[in-house]
Every structure is written in structure tokens, then in C-alpha cells.
């Protein structure tokens, strides 16, 4: 994976580039590009996981899946989308892998091809983890890999995220992330890390990396780092599905329950987060009657179970914060003192610039925008739009319109998502119409939404 301009060196990047090529699927009467993009997002991780189990080789699996999507781009406009798009991709990828193995000259590869042909539907692998994508998660979280590499590689192989999207999640340049992925793949080859189900005794040691991956997949789905739509529903659904699988697999791990509760409570707001026109609706302005009551109840029940265990961790504390928001009928009813106290605990346990920024937002609601702004001015989140967005909102509430305008401009320049940019542009346009101190509670893009 190089850094040359315009070059896609990883199979997922190349596949995404083919899927998204302007005009490829847009002639009248053909399948729209968005349909293949949707299948790519939903099927890539599953297809790579299944093919890796069959082939025992991650690189070969990715190449085969890439070939399958190239074939889909060429054939679906004329043939139509198959009844089971994900199954079509897996089957086509498997056939492409067989074709490639047949062309290889070694006897071992010919035996592998014959085995694939003779057993078109191999039985599921035995072990603690039976789901292919969940198994891939634990495989990528092998202790031989550096923690950051484990997360990045799994986002690639399970979530199908591009290098740019993963780089945004890590707040690093794209070239840096490309190099990390190359090193991670090289480490797998050099250390001969197998694709296999870890023994049950090994599962807890892999858990931290797995939870981080699932949460980052959910975060990317909750607020897409790029594109027109605010939410990528398929990624949210996949993260929640994996969270449920983990909770079933490891029911006595409180952080597993905490992560699932966190995702469910945030996901419960999705119907109210986006207007019918696709606009972002911040937490303070959401119609809480539209929140998914079943998800709220399930998430709150998990939080209560975590509290009874009295073994707090970062995901449990974040879930507790979301539960406080879910308890309030309106923004004004929110127990901001409790939110700040929970952020204090989270800061002591797992400090980060993003935790500090969210705490500053809560402090602004509890003690006023001046107190929140004083905290924000101490933070540094290079390359991320949320810091100038929150700063702009607090400056607006303090009646410092000129400074708020400058901060909004900075946030707009950094925001990669069109819905977030549009939201920030609307807030900036409103500056000239609001008097000093007007505006009510924080409405920064992404803040507690």
C-alpha cells in the first residue's frame, strides 16, 4: 500500500474505488451506484471472513472478494441485482479463488483448489467463536500485533473501511495509516499468525482490542467520516450484531455489556437524529418521542446490571452517561451534574482529548458557556472538526459572534461529512440573526447527539 496520489493499493480501497467510479452504474435502466455501494458495505467483511476460513490466507481472500465486486460492477447493470447479493459475492469470490489456485503451478495449490471444489459448503469450524466475522475480529487481535494495528486491520477486514476512513477514526494522516496496515499484514505473514478460533482461555486477552474495533465500527456508522449521509446504517447494525454476539459469548465480562448498552442507547436516537430532508438534528432539538423505546429499555437494563457488578470500565461509564440522557424527557431535565461526575470518573480511568471535549460540553450546560469555553481552550485535537465546532457554539452563546464565525469556518473546513458541514453552515448563517447570549443549550455538531 503506497502513498502515490490516486493509487489504491489495498484490495478494499481498490474495490471501493471501482464501486464508486462516477458513471459506472448510472446509465438509464441500470443498477445505481448506491446499490453496489450498499452491498459492498454490508457484504465485504463477511465475504473476506468466509474466504479466509476457506483459503487460510487473508491476502488471497481479499483479492478474491475484490475480483467479485469488479465482476458485480460489470454484470449487475445488465443482469440486475441478484436475490441474495451477499451470497452472490461470496460464491463469486470463492469461484475466483478456485480459478486463481488452478492457475498456480504448485501441487499444494492444486490440492487446495480440488478441496474447495469437492466441498462447496464446508461445515462450520468448531470452537468458542462460530461467527466468521467475530472469529476474524479475534484473529486480528492477536497479541503479536501492536494494539493500534489490531484495531486498524480489523476495521479493514471486518468493516470494509477504506484507509482514509480508518485514518480519520485514529486522527492520523492517511499515509500514516497506510503504512500501519502494510506493517500489520507483513507481521501476520512473518509471524505466521493463523486464522483460527482462539481457545477459550485466550479470549479475555483479545477482548480489549475487539471491543475497541466494534466501537470504532459503530462510531463510523453513527457519524460517517465522509460522504453525503450522516449515518451508515449497515455499519451500526453490524457493530450492534457483533456486540450481541460478544455478550452471548462472554456474558460475565462487564465491559462487553457496557459496550452493548452504549451502542443500544446511542442507536435508539437514530430515528430523531436526522430530519426528513437528511439534516443533522442535535440532541437538544431531537423529538424524544421518536427515540426507540425498546432499545432504550434494553440499554438501561444493561447499565443497571453493570452498576450492580461494581467493576466500572470506560464503556460502562460511557453507557451510564447515555443512560442519564435517556432518562431525561427534555434537555432541560438532564441531570448535568451526574453527567459531569461520570465524565470525571471516565477522565480518571481513560483520559483522552475527546473525553475532555465532551466533558467540557457537559460543564457548559451545568456551569455556563464561559466555564465550558475555558476548558475547550486548553484542548488540542488537530485535524478534527468537533473541537472548533464546540468552540464556535460556546462563543455564539457568549455573544462573541466574530470569533464564533472564525471557529465555524475552521470546523466547516475540517468536516468530512456533508450533513455535518451543512449543519455548521446553518449555524454560522444564524450568527447575524441572534442577539448576544441567545441560543440556549449546546448545539455543536456531534456533541452528545
TrEMBL record:
Keywords: Sigma factor, Transcription, Transcription regulation
Molecular function terms, GO-annotated: DNA binding; sigma factor activity
Gene3D superfamilies: 1.10.1740.10, Winged helix-like DNA-binding domain superfamily/Winged helix DNA-binding domain
Keyword Transcription found: yes
TM stretches of this protein: none
Family, similarity comment: Belongs to the sigma-70 factor family. ECF subfamily.
PANTHER family: BLL6612 PROTEIN (PTHR47756:SF2), BLL6612 PROTEIN-RELATED (PTHR47756)
Name the record gives this protein: RNA polymerase sigma factor
Source species of the chain: Geodermatophilus sabuli
